[in-house]
Amino acid sequence: MTFRVWAPAHERVRVRVDGTDHEMTRDGEWWHADASGTDYAFLLGDNENPLPDPRSRWQPEGVHGPSRGYDHGAFAWTDQAWTGRALPGGVLYELHIGTFTEGGTFDSAIGKLDYLADLGVTFVEVLPVNSFDGTAGWGYDGVLWGAVHEPYGGPDGFKRFVDACHRRGLAVVLDVVYNHLGPSGAYLDRFGPYFAGQNDWGPGLNLDGEGSDEVRRYVIDNALGWLRDFHMDALRLDAVHALADRRATHLLEELAVEVEALSAAVRRPLTLIAESDLNDPKLVTAREAHGYGLDAQWSDDLHHALHVALTGETSGYYADFAAPDALPRTLREVFFHAGTWSSFRGRTHGRPVDTRTVPGHRFLAYLQNHDQIGNRATGDRLSATVSPGRLACGAAIVFCSPYTPMIFMGEEWAASTPWQFFASFPDPELAEAVRTGRRREFARHGWGEADVPDPIDPATVERSRLRWAEVSEPGHREMLALYRSLIALRRDRAELTDPALDHLTVRTEGSWLVLHRGRLRLAVNLGEEPVTVPLDGETAGILLSWGEATASSSAAALPPETFVLLELAS
Description:
With about 575 residues, the chain is α/β, with parallel strands linked by helices. Helices cover about 25% and strands about 20% of the residues. It catalyses: hydrolysis of (1->4)-alpha-D-glucosidic linkage in 4-alpha-D-[(1->4)-alpha-D-glucanosyl]n trehalose to yield trehalose and (1->4)-alpha-D-glucan. One of its GO terms (molecular function) is 4-alpha-D-(1->4)-alpha-D-glucanotrehalose trehalohydrolase activity.
């Protein structure tokens, strides 16, 4: 086979294949050699320390070991009839392979796919599965982006998982991280000018400096590889605000162009979903309207407004969302900070969304996600502190909103297990640095160091693993039934998937809130006292309620922490 590597500044490059070294031939900035074998690594200059392939497809011995050749054409796919899913009208379910099941592998996760299909979700969003150092981790410290983490089941295991999802009508979203590399095994800069500066999480990529053409190609080829070779339906792009790119054509727009071309070639929808702290609708504005052309982005402002409304927490970045109009404003306008003052940042932030032209399905709505749970000191879910009634009201708001709903694994049954930050770096110095850094970070916010779970302790992973027996237990089964009903109603009633933001009316006073969705009304009481809510029309019937909520004539009677979804007479 032919081995190739980009190493522009080196005068000598060798490839070690199954223990035998072969001199490589320069071809411009690239090097190549033909050799027979399976496992290989590169030696740069006269250095005898072999390094894995930056474009490795398989790392069976971990991120420091040799790469292994992998033939994408050898896998026997059975999803030839799969035509994909468009995002509008969809429901996402975010999960982490290592803690979703007791086995913590792709194959064990397949055993739960019938449950997800029956729940009614349409997209399974998988946290990063690229190779990172150690066995357990969130996946955001990956260093070999094209190789699937071996403890999960490697590349074949991931393909079996995707194939099984497609057989059940489930599209697959993969979380990918292009804004930084992890702290262990990040050898890219030894090959060429891959790195440019640091961000909050590690070394960032050189996207606009000298030699950056090949670095950008490295990112785009990786994204296309997941979509083409692993049959992904969508990519979630982690923290794109940390991509430092001053070129006239931003990397995100360039990626959107190439993904659109691939979508036409494979004849199925391919979706790009950004996580962004910029509050800039340019990301999801069509390229014809001078945007980047991404399909969707996460909506953290709506999460923050919901979180404050449900919990009363107002520390840190939640402070601004204690404003009385925070929740109704974000429901109507997407961004709370839209060219307005952000006290957490100490400056104005964001730009308004044109609700006349930008559809709501381009923004993901959620009560919880891996970040908003796992980056709390103890990884506590809402269910640890919020009553079932308030959880139910929050879920109803998300699923009755004009946005694309997303669930974090276990949320749908109010799982009691936390989801904590964990890692398993074998290097004891790095492990101690992560442990100490995590505790100091939260100590600055008032937490005792002893209260912060040890991220390196295997018990932290075990605590974070879902306990599936809860699904049928009292309290949990009722919440699961509610989520099933909300998803089913969203599927059956076109008013609930209508993405037109300028069609949405939100009425609120004190503790109550009413969403107008065509002839449907969602009336919610988040307060501790009963309220009577006007509905602006005669009631035709109740579709769903929580607690003792009732409706008669043109008003809804809502006890504390209840909701009712009803239809008005024509």
